[in-house]
Amino acid sequence: MRQHFPTEFVYQVFSLLIAFILVHALYVTLIRPQAEVFLEREAAQLQADPAYVPQRSFYVVIKDYEQETCFVLMLWAFSILGYKGRAAWRQQKLLEQDLLQLPDNLPVGPEDTRGLIGRLQSLPAPLQDYLLPRALLSAVERFNATRNVQNVSTAARDLCDSEGERLESELSTIRYIAWAIPSVGFIGTVRGIGDALGQAHRAVEGDITGVTASLGVAFNSTFIALVISIVLMFFIHQLQLMQERLVLDSERYVDRWLVRRLQT
């Protein structure tokens, strides 16, 4: 069997590193400095005017480490979704081509299988790993071996089903990320509530600044994590729908352009 370089694994590792570098650089240079400036300005306004109503800032909402982690995971998941979506789109475009190159309404007999096999094996190496060429090649080889049309249809259907299961299992990493993001937000909630409880004695004395800041960490981390999770799950379902359509369309392609034209 042909040995494949783990391109997707390397892509996932480097995409995670790049996502961390970009997000952390943005936080260090922009988000946290802006949040500190805003909080200092609000504290000065409250000190000057006790009746002042504090304002909210997006920089303050996303400034904590839990939100930063959520954004890193979000970019990582989007990079993987883009990689898999691009691969599925390429395979979907292949369905528009005539890979068998047979004249219209010409039946296919056992004597034609050798030429079809050679034609499919002459495709470029990357295309040979796509679902449609593999399904066609499996069907032609089964017809060449058994001369049975029903076996050909079963072979193509089984290969498409196994490919659908493989695509489904490869979404496990993205689903893990979609699960991890709300979990990170919940960690921020626990951390914020713990800090607030640790400053309860100051609240009893009348200083609730520390308690409110800690509760802000708790609620902000949960809010950002849930919003990101909702958006991410939408794109995950879109990718899953694209992959399911690819499998069904490939099976229909084999049935229309090959199985129906077979004659023993």
Descriptive notes:
- The protein has 264 residues and is mostly helical.
- The protein has one domain (7-261).
- Helix content is 78%, strand content 0%.
- It has helices spanning 7-48, 58-61, 65-94, 113-121, 125-128, 131-146, 149-169, 172-198, 200-204, 209-257.
- The two termini are 31 Å apart.
- The model has no long low-confidence stretch (mean pLDDT 86).
Task: Show the helix and strand layout.
Layout lengths: L6 H42 L9 H4 L3 H30 L18 H9 L3 H4 L2 H16 L2 H21 L2 H27 L1 H5 L4 H49 L7
Helix pairs in contact: 1-3, 3-8, 3-10, 4-6, 6-7, 6-10, 7-10, 8-10
In a few lines, what is going on in this structure?
With about 260 residues, the chain is mainly α. It has helices at about 5-50, 60, 65-95, 115-120, 125-130, 130-145, 150-170, 170-200, 200-205, 210-255.
Oligomer: single chain
The number of strands is 0
- The whole-angstrom Rg is 28 Å
Instruction: State mean pLDDT (0 to 100 scale).
Output: 86
- Please state the structural category: mainly alpha
Tell me the helix content: over 70%
- The 3D shape can be described as rod-shaped
Which range does the strand content fall in?
A: under 5%
Largest sheet: none
The helix tally amounts to 10
Distance between the termini: 31 Å
Could you list the spans in which at least 5 consecutive residues all have pLDDT below 50?
Answer: none
Order of helices and strands: HHHHHHHHHH
Number of domains: 1
Q: Which features characterize this protein?
A:
single chain; mainly alpha; 264 residues
